Amino acid sequence: MEFAPGTVTLVGGGPGDIDLLTLGALKALRAADVVLHDRLAPEAALDECRDDCLLVPVGKVPRGKCTPQEEINRLLVEHARAGRVVVRLKGGDPFVFGRGGEEWQACVEAGVPVQVIPGVTSSVAAPALAGIPVTHRAVSRGFTVVSGHVPPGDPRSDVNWSALARTNTTIVILMGVKYLPEITAELRGAGLPDDVPAAVVEDAASQRMRVVHATLASVADEAVAADVRPPAITVIGPVAAGLSSLHPAQ
User: Fold this and answer.
1) Where would I find the beta strands (DSSP E) of 96-219?
2) Active-site option among 60, 65, 93, 194
């Protein structure tokens, strides 16, 4: 992959541990003139940039400081048009709730060449680091990743929670800490049993990582009692009990 002046590269930084950064991401950071980085991208990865590289923080803090997406798009285009090698460093994968698609489109519409380096998505990595496989041949042959950024019933939400409750597969919820009570109530109301295992993984891939194991009926209360805060991922389904509780597939 080449990193030419006047181009933008959308880079997935993985779930936060620099050891989970891809070689492609490392090469991009070392070639960059400008790096626009999220707050969830691995901070240590920025040490790989050249001393003369311009580092621009454009993170979004929940209910806090926020760089509007339009401003991020503008900066990407502006720096690229100035002939710089531009890298947009994100946590996880750019195309999994990372608004990478929006940034790609903004570059294309502006006539700026753009490419992507996929990253290790936290929707799979966070559970794995907690000993939770999102699929397991004995109990789950599929998984669905959804955003819990808005609650069920909100006009902005198009997630069919009732349908999810009937899939008999693992449910992985990103950005769902605040509305976990509403989400679990919706799933229970749609027929998902109260005793289905659930787990919340907080600050995965960091020294602060915690795992709260519970059931569908209790996970929201357990998360509140443990003072779980974003970033955290919720896993619902038999696999959430963890590998030590699963029987080998026959």
Assistant:
1) 114-117, 143-147, 170-174, 197-202, 210-215
2) 60
Indicate the class that CATH gives domain 123-245: alpha beta
pTM of the shown model: 0.92
Question: Three-state SS for 100?
Answer: helix
Which one of 17, 33, 38, 93 is the catalytic residue? 38
What span, in angstroms and rounded, lies between the C-alpha atoms of 70 and 74? 6
Domain ranges of the chain: 7-120, 123-245
27 a catalytic residue: no
What is the CATH architecture of 7-120?
A: 3-Layer(aba) Sandwich (3.40)
Establish whether 60 is a catalytic residue.
yes
Tell me: the pLDDT tens digits for 123-160?
999 999 999 999 999 899 999 999 999 999 999 999 99
Q: Which token pair is 171?
A: 């449910």
